[in-house]
Amino acid sequence: MKWKEPISVIIPFYNEKDRVAETFMIVDSFLKAKFETYEIIPVDDGSDDITQDNICNFIMACNYQNIKPLFYITNYGKGHAIRRGLLNAKHNLIMILDADLSVQPINILKFMDRNSKRLTKPILCLGQRNQIVKQGQVRLFLGDVFRWLVSKIIEKPIKDTQCPYKILYNIDKELIKNMVIDGFAYDVELIRIAEINKIKIFTQNVPYFNDENSSVTLPKIIRMAYDLIRIKIKY
What is the pTM of this model? Predict the structure, then answer.
């Protein structure tokens, strides 16, 4: 069975030159098997390695017509990349994934099974990570602090706002245009916008495989804290 609802899949990239081919093959193969109409939108957030070259070369070599990349030179941040992708997506149903596929695209099947008959009004679905590999104590502590700060901004009690897997349906692009957070805290701004505009928000538990190469750095922590303050002031 293939779903008739067209879908856009947004994948932000930054210095992911070694992931390009595998990520595209996995996502495209899944979508081809499960959806009649789809597009994949990789957004390269100003990589300074050869990620952009690898994306172009892969599309040309394999003739992947459903992959529609977006490139720009400056590295703005994950939130900026995803906002670009959302504004360029042509379908109402949108899935967001990370390039490392720490959450696999197959998880959308559970969403479709539960919501296909309700795909009329705007929806925001947030992944809630079930950790397959436990994180370090420092990262867990910082996560707890971040969640406490987030709880002071959004009304709905959500344990995990930062899961890379998200589903949006029929959300007005004018709302997306008004987003200002370019960094990792874009998720919180998206949730706050959904709350203010009475968009249905619900969560979905998903298996999550840690990226061993990812790290939490002091500049990232400072930027996320600053962005939370900006969200609190704006909304």
Answer: 0.93
What is the helix (H) or strand (E) element at residue 124, kind and residue range?
Answer: strand 123-131
Q: Helix H segments across the chain? A: 20-34, 51-62, 78-88, 108-115, 137-151, 173-177, 186-196, 218-234
Residue 61 has pLDDT above 60, yes or no: yes
Rounded Cα distance, 46 and 73, in Å: 4
Q: Rounded to whole angstroms, what are the CA distances from 17 to 9, 28, 50, 53, 210?
A: 19, 18, 6, 8, 19
CA 163, distance to chain mean position in Å, is 8
Q: Is the dihedral of CA 56, 20, 96, 84 positive or negative?
A: negative
Q: How many CB atoms lie within 10 A of CB 88?
A: 15
CA angle 23, 136, 11 (to 5 degrees): 20
CATH of 7-234, one of 3.90.70.10, 2.60.120.10, 3.90.550.10, 3.40.30.10: 3.90.550.10
C-alpha pair distances (Å), 11 with each of 80, 116, 184, 222: 12, 23, 14, 25
So what's the pLDDT on residue 119? 87
Token reading at 215: 């790290």
Q: How confident is the model over 186-225, as pLDDT tens digits?
A: 999 999 999 999 999 999 999 998 765 555 566 777 888 8
Query: Which pLDDT score, from 0 to 100, does residue 212 have?
Result: 59
Q: Is there a contact between 91 and 7 (Cβ–Cβ < 8 Å)?
A: yes
